[in-house]
Amino acid sequence: MSQLLKIRGLKIEGRSDETWNPIINGVDLDLNKGEVLGLIGESGAGKSTIGLAAMGYTRDGVRISDGSVEFEGVDLVTASAAVKRGLLGSRIAYVAQSAAASFNPAHRIIDQHTEAPTQHNVSSKADSEADGMELYRRLRLPNPNEIGFRYPHQVSGGQLQRAMTAMAMSCRPDLIIFDEPTTALDVTTQIEVLAAIRDIVEQFDTAAIYITHDLAVVAQMADKIKVLLRGDEVEEADTRTMLSAPTEDYTKSLWAVRSFERPAKPAINVKATPIVSVQGVTAAYGKVDVLHDVSFDIHEGRTVAVVGESGSGKSTTARCITGLLPPRIGHIEFEGVQMPLDYRKRDKMQLRQAQMIYQMADTALNPRKTIGETIGRPVEFYMGLTGKEKRKRVEALLDEIELEPSQYIDRLPSELSGGQKQRIGIARALAAEPKFIICDEVTSALDQLVAEGILKLLAKLQDELGLSYMFITHDLATVRAISDEVVVMKDGVVVEQGPKLDMFQPPHHPYTDLLLSSVPEMDPDWLSNLLESRGVDNIGDAAVDKM
Amino acid sequence: MNAIFTIIALLVAIAACGWVFRIAGQKFTQNRPYFRDMTFGVAFGYAFAAFALVALIWAYLQAQSSDPLVANKYFFFGKAVEGFLIFAVAAWLFRLLGRAVGTAGTRKLFRSMPLTASFGVLIIILYAIVAIFAGVIAPYGQEEILGAANVVPGGDPALGGNPEFPLGTDQIGRDILSRLIYGAQNTVGIAFATTLLAFFIGGSLGFLAATLGGWLDQLLSRVVDALMAIPSLIFALLLMTIASVWSNQVGIPLTYFMILIIAVIDATRVFRLARAVGSSIVVMDYIEAAKLRGEGLTYLIFREILPNATAPLLAEFGLRFCFVFLTIASLSFLGVGIQPPLADWGTMVRDLGQFINFAAFAPQVAVTPLLAAGAIALLTVAVNFVVDWMLHKSSGLKE
Quick check: ipTM above 0.85? Predict the structure, then answer.
């Protein structure tokens, strides 16, 4: 095999507060023709920065301070703009995380597809259009001859991601950089894109750098894996060795994340009054019903996970419970008492009972308020505490979420990491001393290690305070880790519900089955086995459509 | 025809210089990436900038010529270059001072400050001092008639000046320097009050519309649309004419009416901004959390939304201040604004306007109306520099 990409001693710095701070501290990387390298690590590890540097490119305010990036013997760090122009797009291509944000919404997909081949004089516009359709067919996009003539907003997210892969392939490059291409997708869509990408990379013998934070995904895609931590390489090995016998502690801790699981609790006393009871709720945005006759109970000290793909009505159900979207039919009971449907008609004590933790901690905390103010407000508002007593309570709450009070109480949200912000969101919910908390995708924006910490904290708080959770998620690993009961939703309807143990064992509803089987596992043969057992046309959105 | 040929020949010469510059750069720096990847357009730009600089210096030297005919031709240009250099040095020194003294916070602020912003801050501080202490600084009263009319600025008796009146006197013998200083107090003070009022009206209504939405939002927005559809200066002129009749009947000074009228007209613009900024904040999860907590409208607007809207509003405040200021100056120029004998820059430009006809042969005389106009321009430019800087900071861009 011949060497395609050779990175030596790569050092990258980023500018902040008028000084240059290191982002990457000397990383080496080798890639042969037709080989797929998986780059994994937490956010901030420098994965994307290395991915871009492999093209000799850096974002604004970032510079390559040392080292070389040799692509077939040409050093891209020192190469002239003209040389780079010749390589990028034709020999090296890039697939970004969000295809929806990367396509120009004003042009048809096929016109954007043909741009690179015609610019690089690889083929004529007509030839590359025909080739595009061929690629769409190979990537199993529906209506391959027609889909290219649509605008980006007219196709779904998963299809767009595949169209982008096709676009990267348009000049038959030797190297493609995939930057988290499936992170923003649902599990059933993800598996489709994964299968398509792997297929086409193998067919054309293309080398690839696959950047992701999802270990199970990288296990399916990569020949070898490199683990990064804060700009340093932790270790590199081929996929099977890495998965079965990681040598470094950090890698082991990454691997261990998925093993967190709470012990099962005794069966529910069915006669007890549930904390929250959703009864026959049908709700609509405008004239269109988005929830149809949804009913489930949440008992004291239990976690009910609501699972489904985006658009299945999980968050809408939460909006009905909190009263932001009053249901059209049906009602909500808290401890056997019927609640006013609109939150504006609920009194302080009723509002206090149901608290919410949001997915994006960035938008859930007021950026201009210190942590003390954010947590202190519900304490003052509901409990009437002021001055020293309020401060004491805030400090106790910070202790509870495992942050040092004296250090954090006067900080602004921008001075915290993602996981810490999410903890503040939890503390704000706890400050109201509720019995019931809605957790809306609270871990999906976080790295796996950090997410695990949040899940453990939530479990601990549940044991100590007897809280009930409604846990909205699309990640079945999270469900397995924390839930007691599971509600599966699809298109605004509850497809299946019951205790967790029953849900993870067959037989189940075909949709639950599809969801479960679409979750990538750490086994590198998982995707191949799945494709073999289900067939190419029986995975992903195609299978959902058949239902 | 000749002029066109000259321009073409000049451009070709500059292009050739640019070409040579790039080649030379590549040769002498051993093909450094900067020169190697330089496009011809950039090289042309460098050559053009160099040519413009040479032309500037030549024109400035002409202004210093001993032949009064040549010197007069370039008189204003020479003064502009001197003013520019003096202000640049002053701004630079001011920034150095700001970096050396003060608290850690202000020093950090000055370190990140571009020269334009420090110029703006310096000018605003100077104007504020002059406006506040006008009574102490001004050598004469604003209404005082001193006998000697039409004294030429400059204080040089040979050219018709008088050292007692460094900026000369107007047609009825009032000291222009004193009137400029009092004008700062009147014009700037009234503009500031008007802008504050405009922001109070526009801001609170805008946030209210954003938070409540529905029919109230519709009603307020359509009323604002209707008000904005009328050309603002003509609308203000119309209302001022009506108000001038009222003010005589009721006995309230016209200035109060002027403040109210301009504030309402400008509040429509503030309303638009506050509503747009507010509605993008209202959809945030932390607002939802506050609503679900059961917070009232006042808390939502003043404690949750307002702190996040201060940056754009503050930037708009600076810009709006300029417009209000110019509107007052224009109204005064048209004769319905600040009433004589109060000194006001707009009125001063109007009163002394005819001297501009002397510009060609006696530039020292023509300077008189330009002093007040310059005072307006300087403040407007300074405020805009500061606003630009604040916008840049609040947008979080890095250069």
Answer: no
